Amino acid sequence: xxxxxxxxxxxxxxxxxxxxxxxxxxxxxxxxxxxxxxxxxxxxxxxxxxxxxxxxxxxxxxxxxxxxxxxxxxxxxxxxxxxxxxxxxxxxxxxxxxxxxxxxxxxxxxxxxxxxxxxxxxxxxxxxxxxxxxxxxxxxxxxxxxxxxxxxxxxxxxxxxxxxxxxxxxxxxxxxxxxxxxxxxxxxxxxxxxxxxxxxxxxxxxxxxxxxxxxxxxxxxxxxxxxxxxxxxxxxxxxxxxxxxxxxxxxxxxxxxxxxxxxxxxxxxxxxxxxxxxxxxxxxxxxxxxxxxxxxxxxxxxxxxxxxxxxxxxxxxxxxxxxxxxxxxxxxxxxxxxxxxxxxxxxxxxxxxxxxxxxxxxxxxxxxxxxxxxxxxxxxxxxxxxxxxxxxxxxxxxxxxxxxxxxxxxxxxxxxx
Length: 417
Known about the structure:
- With 417 residues, this protein is of the alpha/beta class.
- It has one domain: Alkaline Phosphatase, subunit A (3-Layer(aba) Sandwich).
- It contains 14 helices and 13 strands.
- Strands 1, 2, 6, 7, 8, 9, 10, 11, 12 and 13 form a 10-stranded mixed sheet that branches. It has a 3-stranded antiparallel sheet with strand order 3-5-4, with helices on one face.
- The longest helix has 23 residues, at 291-313.
């Protein structure tokens, strides 16, 4: 497969509402966000949703691993994990060994795993399947993303949803408006003696006149903004096309530097920016060959980004209202291919984490022997998960966003309070 950049994927996905993809949506900077935080701060009791997209089709069977299942071992003689290698979750399942931090969240009932998630009549194309997930429309192509339609219905304020990816993903493009975009890039101020002298200019001095005091506050505000927003993303300095090809399995889009993206999101939440939905991503999961090492490295990156993010959020009232949703466009085939990898499949697990999540398993584990043309049969419709977070995290009417689909998963999200 020829490498396909994220930008080309977004163009081919068909979601172009409000000119979002053509013009890069509403680019915002730290000043706009800090002003919004001061003038209209996020209600500490308001739910916030962070959507993590794993581009490429993550292999769910080597993520939530049925290691004790004979059918799993037989289908993947070189690729399968042994029971003693995985992190035991119960029910004959274990987490990939690269996910030790998330195992700790599981043990503390802060991680939910929704099993067998997919959609009717699955498509093996990266582009079509990702478009289905991001538009929440399995049957017909629509020109808007599911969170973009939520944005339309909730007042069309682009600051209510923010992407920290280089290009706005289709899920945040509505029919009438689009989310704001603040790509990870960080802010930098002078260091050393010059930096110390500049910082000193932000210290108030008794008896200053109005304009000097105002300038002093501006310098202080700048340093506060750097503290909140400047640390993330110094590691994300590669160009879009380069970061698509940096690792094996990266042909289907996505971004690197997930920890930096999540650091930025955490800072914006803590600062009280009135954003209710964020989008971040990690690419590289198209593991047609040499899967085990590649995927375990990527899942370790996911784990080492999500775990400190979740721990940090526990330290503030606003952070405790954040729910993280992790998904990929499809799982992989049950049977390994001849290149020690797996090909495009269907159903896979979704992860949700946060203080309000009801930890544990949700949904039924797909059978490894009752297959549909060698693919797993989905046991949970992904729109059920979307409806749950729309209603229980964002306080929206799911039927208005999901074309009448309002079926939810019971006991997945605790009531705010």
